[in-house]
Every structure is written in C-alpha cells, then in structure tokens.
Amino acid sequence: MKKFLALLSLTSLLVSNAAVSTVSAQEPTEIDQLTVAFVPSRDPEEIITATEPLKQLLIDELAELGFNVGEVEITVGTNYEAVGEAMAAGTADVGLIPGGTYVLFDEDVEVLLTSTRSGLSKDSENPADWNDGQSTEAGDEQVTYYKGLVIAGPSEKGQELAAKVNNGEELTWEDLDSANWSVMSSSSSSGYIYPSIWLSQNYDGNMVSDLSTIVQAESYASSIARLAAEQVDIVVGFADLRRDYAEAWETEMGREASIWEETNVIGVTPNVYNDTVSVSLHSEVMTDELKEAIKQAFINIAETDEGKEVISIYSHEGYQEATSEDYDNEREAQKILREQAQ
C-alpha cells in the first residue's frame, strides 16, 4: 500500500509539473513595440490618419496569436527608398511596400503577403480605350496585379498628346520628350519602373531617365496637383490613380471639369504585381513565429469591415501568401533598367 501511495504521489507530481510546463509554454511573447512603415503613395498625413485604427487591430489580432504588443508605431517614409532603408536597418519591423521597393531591398527584407484588389472596368492595353470620359469603376474579380498608366493632363501639351492617341496616331519619342513629366522615386513600380519599361519597349530603349524634363513628386497627391495646375503635362501611376483623386480634382485642385474629361491615358504599362506586406530581416523582435503571426493577422484584419476600411488607403482589399519568386518579373524589370542605364 505504501508503494502504491508513493507511486500515486509521484504520478500526481509529474502530471502537475507537466501541466505547469504546458501553461508556461503557452504564455504569450511580450513585444514592447512593433513599427509598421508605409510608403508615401498618398499624402503622408492622409495615410497616418487613415491607418490609425490599424494599431489596435494589429495589437488585438497578435494577442490572439500569442504575442502581446505594447505599442504599434506607424510611420510614413519621406520616399519609397527611405522605407526600404529603415527596414534594412531594422528600425522598421514591418513594411507595406510595392514590389519594386521589396526587390531593391530583398537581401534585407522578406515578403510575407501580396495584396489583392478589385479588378477595374477598364483593363485594356490600348490607351484610347480608357478615354471615353467615363469613370473607371471597380469590378467584382479580385486580382493580384494592376496596370500602370501614363496620363496626360489639361495643359496645352497634354491635350495635344491626348488628341493624337485618341485619333489612333502613334506618339513619337519627340512628342513625349517635349512634355514636362511628374514621376515618383526610382523604386516606385507604377510611378517610375514600369513607365520606364513601357518607354524602353516602345521608344528604342529610352527610359524615364532619358526624358528632358522630369519632376520627382513627393507623393501621388502632389503629382496630380501639379497636373491640375498645368505645371506638368504628364503623370505616371497606378491604374486607379484618377479614381483616388476624382473628387479632389474639382474641390481642392480647383478644376471645373471632371478628371475623366480633362485627363487622358496615353500609355499603358505591363502588369505590375501588387504591393507587399514585408518584414525586416534585421528587426530585433522578428522571429519565424512572429512572421507567421503577422501574416495571419493581416489576413484576418482584411476580412473585417474596419480592417477593409483601413487598408483601402492603398486600394488593398485582401491578402494572400506570397513568395519571393512572385516578384521575379519585377527583378527582370529592374535588371533591364540597370543594363540600359549603363
């Protein structure tokens, strides 16, 4: 009987210790701060305001996934490269960055997700098909790509170029080089890289850097504002750029007619793979477990009404898992740019 009681006592002690170990193993990981960086594809203040709810959404989702985050800090880079550099330095843990920026920094940054968005009612490679004076609407299908557009504005030169395109005439390099262009930073996919690819494919290897007059804009908002003020003749950007600024065109920018009437597409780039949710490989807090949690957190957030509203600032509607290989076309694009710049 004594042996039985001793064995029972030992068994109870082992079970108790195992239970304590299990509870200990399930204790959440504590993280003081997680920094999420955004590129300035919209006005920085607008991004900061729109993404404020993301802080608590991330904290709540990550808590469910075993990570107690004390604070989420949201920053907007001064340009696209600044966000990549912050991630490479480990001062930004998570970045919502386009494919071009990811590829530029892919030795220091790991892609987790690619965004999905609604397709558009217009998806033609023929620029004139976009110029019926009617707004471009969202479609029902979710897609993982978007087209870049070369858009002529209401200036005399912009209208001259648009008239040729809408009459079925081919633009010459001289036509384009005589215009004033507004572009984004050199790692922006639709704001620089893919317009360069379009130029290269159609104009004997010439690229954005070969144009006589270019202005690098701080954001798409400032680029469109310059177009409205007729300070530039051409802007480049993503396919739903005009949708984003249709209201501001007439209110804040003082135009009397709609953006659909006063602007015309004069070029359509190859498809651009969507923006990424990426993480820094040099972050002090980043682990494989946290990467998986961040991945699931963003997927979950995008499935809620509040989350959808937050990520709509970038025209994101959802997320799916991504691999580095998804951006091989982006690497090829940048390779072409490097070779032709030599």
CA radius of gyration: 25 Å
Q: Major sheet: size, sense and barrel closure?
A: 7 strands, mixed
**Which class of secondary structure composition applies to the elements?**
alpha/beta
Uncertain stretches = 1-5, 13-25
Return the average pLDDT rounded to an integer.
90
The arrangement of helices and strands along the chain is: HEHHEHEHEEEHHEHEHEHHHEEHHEH
- Terminal-residue CA separation: 89 Å
State the total count of DSSP E strands.
12
**Coarse morphology:** globular
How many H/I helical runs?
15
Helix content range of the residues, please?
Answer: 40-55%
Binned strand content: 15-25%
Word description of this protein:
The protein is 43% helix and 23% strand. It has 342 residues and is α/β, with parallel strands linked by helices. Strands 1, 2, 3, 4, 5, 11 and 12 form a 7-stranded mixed sheet that branches. Strands 8-7-9-6-10 form a 5-stranded mixed sheet, with helices on both faces. Helix 3 crosses helix 13 and helix 8 (189-202) packs across helix 15. The longest helix has 24 residues, at 2-25. It is globular and about 65 Å long.
Task: Compose a concise summary of this entry.
The chain is of the alpha/beta class and 342 residues long.
Keyphrases for this structure?
disordered N terminus, 342 residues, 5-stranded mixed β-sheet, 43% helix, alpha/beta, 12 strands, 15 helices
Task: Summarize the helices and strands and which ones pair or pack.
Layout: H1 2-25, E1 29-38, H2 44-50, H3 52-64, E2 67-76, H4 80-89, E3 94-97, H5 99-104, E4 109-120, E5 138-143, E6 145-152, H6 156-166, H7 173-177, E7 181-183, H8 189-202, E8 214-216, H9 220-228, E9 234-238, H10 241-244, H11 246-250, H12 259-262, E10 264-273, E11 276-280, H13 288-301, H14 305-311, E12 318-321, H15 328-341
Parallel strand pairs: 1-2, 1-3, 7-8, 7-9
Antiparallel strand pairs: 3-11, 4-5, 4-11, 4-12, 6-9, 6-10
Helix pairs in contact: 3-13, 8-15
